[in-house]
Amino acid sequence: MLDELRAAVLAGDEGLAAAKAEAAVENGAGPTAVLEAVSASIREVGESFQRGEVFLPEMMLAADAMKAVVTALGPALLSTGEVSSKGRVVVGTIQHDIHDIGKNIVATFLQMSGFEVHDLGRDVSPRSFAEKAAEIEADIVAVSVLLTSTMNDVPLVRDELKKAGVDGRCAFVVGGAPVTEQWAETIGADGTAEDAAGAARLCEALRS
Amino acid sequence: MTTPSEGGHVPHNVISSGAGLAERIADFYERSRRVQALPEREYDSRVLPGKLKELAERYDIRMRDGEMIPLDLAMARRAFEAGRALLLDVGCYCMDTEGTMSVSADEVEAALAAAPLAHTYGCGGEAVECVGRGVEDVRRPLVKGGPNGCPLTEEHFIPIMTSVAQEEVDGVHTGSLQSVLGIPNRAHTPIEILACKKEALWAREATSAAGKPGLSILGIMSGVTSEAQDAGDFEGGLRPTDPHLVVFLNELKFDYDLLKKVLHDAYLGCAIDANVGGPLHGGYAGGPETAAIVGIAEALLGFVMCRPSNFSWYPQSLFTGATTSRESLWTAGMLLLAFRASGHEVILDTYVGPQAGPWTEMVCRETAAQAVANTACGASALYGSCGARMVKTDHVTGMEARMLVEASRAAAGMSLADANDVLSRLVPTYGEALKAGAAPSGRPFQECYDVETLRPQDEYVALWEREKTELRTLGLHI
Question: What pTM does this model have?
Fold first, then answer.
């Protein structure tokens, strides 16, 4: 049963993955064990992506399948008291920037790493980041940027987080092709990473 | 300079050849309001990749062992049909109305029939005619040298562009200004408009400083909106004979900003360089074969929607951030060969974007490799070369343009098989570093050049000369 579940996750079949997960629990498998099986498959997909063996669509579908499993197992998982989200992350591409492939990869890696991801999409205003962070009591706000002419709007997110009163309890991380560690430090970000896997590690470190 | 094609030259004037342009753009707009609604994530992760896999299988498109560039012209013809089928079956995605819009076979045929086989860029003594080169064509492709849109400081903008213009280039490609008058460039502000105006003005100053006032300038790169990019058109800025970049989004997507820019450029009679920042190997486009299929569809869409003077691809890899991996070279080769083998000698260009930066052995090799690959496969013009993944400020110089000119000149007339042989020896010399993301980012312009005389440092020139010797041992007669 767990093999079928893993196969459904690898195939990115949300409906089948959720059904197999529910069936596994009904047949006596512990919800934590089921989730661990799915997590192992997801890690496999992420590693294959980093080796260039699978591509972004497959990874997005696998992440969606994992999300479907977590939703399906929600009550059972909560009853164990063993499993909790690694944290809530608001992600998005900064306003006036319509490039979102990098952001989508980071969101997928975060999702696969066990974070609850709230993806605001592209062209997101600093205020929208802050409002969402306040609404969901986010642990981290992750801002993506590709263009140098939109980079200068990224620090405004921190300003809005302060205005919304969530700056102290919500980390602020940035990433994207033109972002350097030095720049991230300059604007008062809590960190940056060179790639999506690094972004997931950074967020895990910030939550540890 | 590339010689004009003999016969078959279709003089291109956007206004005259674009009769009905207003009606066409209005029609696209109206159709975009009646799209088949589809969440973008569904389009990106299921609809497009699913169709691409189906088409790659149906048309039997495969990157074969030992191929650095495709060698099978029959497969290239099938790839063209696959790309055409993709566009007709899926259509294109409108980001403003969030759905797919259909494109008809008649529109594709009409657009290809209207596409110029030659176009003159620049003016005066620097006017050059760009032609739709064939496979293994003995004529070298044009080189539009320069930053390819990479970030430039205002301090070094003119010196960098001058260093490029003084090389044997046929045009220059501008970069993106980070600030103006010390004020950081910010999208949707007056400074963005000013940056676009200064970009055009200073690029013109640079070509004049190099003694080539008529040299064509490809831009505008300092603004994200069509309004800002259009601000580059003024007396002293871009001219109608300069290629105006109009960019589609990955993959097979457009937005209203694109339609607005096409209208603006066409009504001014400007040359339009329709472009996609892809296809992106590893992204929604998938592997090298499916990336080629969607890239072909994107070019066809570009000809349909923009009626451009040319189409350009930036066939990069998500994994390397560069255009020079084996997979990206193969994809670019297939993009070009698909059109050429199918009898379409339209103007098709490619961006050259190495992972390594200036004053490194690797940037020499990556640049030479792509020059060989794209020249043999029939590129009309090559842009750059601009290394360091195109993201490091001021990491571009005229020397990389020199490499592109000399390597593409040496590769002109090479057979596909000979080019593949050279690439089979050349690409492995940098392939592992590329894959590991370990390419050196090199040095900024001000270290590579004497900023007073605008001459490259002797050691950098000597490095390129040594690399040319190495390239000769690998079989390139440079």
Answer: 0.93
